[in-house]
């Protein structure tokens, strides 16, 4: 059964008003903006799948907090346990150890009706959109509210609101087969938002999209986080996705926490080999031509320059006037990769510095880690 079909089946769709309909009508009256975000806490969480071929330990010893209102990225290699962890949040999977708390409430303790109401507080967006092909955009998006027995006028109003939010006005009567991948994902996001969730789970939401559409969907998710204030938890293989929109990141390695923290910190000073490996594609090495000419010892020739690497981590931007004053013999900017992540500067400069008679004073540059890589 698909995940989308699950609440349908539980509710007895065509049957009389389900017990959680009152809750749905109540939440329907809340304005779209300014609602509360949810927090998630994993306490000693483990997950072992029992399969005929043997047990698979997917997660172990997970102690992690997702702050409310944050965009929280989960990254790791294939099989690291990302999907398993995400699916514990809305109880598509049950932990075999520990507890998952959403707003302080143990998710495993919820009874059937409470679980249905709870799932409405946690929206989910899927890699392959999971849209119903025989239903129009409007019908796909309206489905969670229809299942919940919300009044017709309420459904129409809310569907119009979320379709406007995701930029799909005018597409209400279109069937999914006539939509691009990016538009399909917008429908998926609108459907996840229509119940006004506190938390939005995104399972590889951009993996099936081209790079340009990926950026548009990431920017939409960030806007939604800012405008509606809801917590977004996303899983991805791509560090660039994390860098683009996340505040915090959890790196999973073989079912365990490799490291976690603000993105600028984890990216700026990765501590775990798994993080370093994942970051490798984004890391700029020494340009090949320079590496070929680099000598580790100074030769003492007049035109010799030292190749100096300056690393900036969460501190102020490179002060070019200060650098010029610090290296009065002359300096050239050879390569630069400076970016801002979450309001913090990080990256590195490569300078070719003319060796003066006083020698190099690379350690006297504030807010940087400086290193002489060699001489050219
Ligand atoms: N239903 C299941 N039954 C048995 N084993 C499972 C099940 N679901 C996942 N696993 C196993 O648990 C481990 C973690 O899987 P999971 O899908 O959570 O990892 P992932 O990091 O999301 O991987 P990917 O990036 O490839 O999607 C893997 O070894 C996987 O084979």
From TrEMBL:
Signal peptide extent: none
Pfam families reported in the protein's UniProt record: ABC_tran (PF00005)
Gene3D superfamilies reported in the protein's UniProt record: P-loop containing nucleotide triphosphate hydrolases (3.40.50.300)
GO CC field: plasma membrane
Domain ABC transporter, first and last residues per copy: 40-279
CDD domains in UniProt: ABC_MetN_methionine_transporter
Keyword match Cell membrane: yes
Family classification: Belongs to the ABC transporter superfamily.
Function: Part of the ABC transporter FtsEX involved in cellular division. Important for assembly or stability of the septal ring.
Protein name: Cell division ATP-binding protein FtsE
Species, as recorded: Aureimonas phyllosphaerae
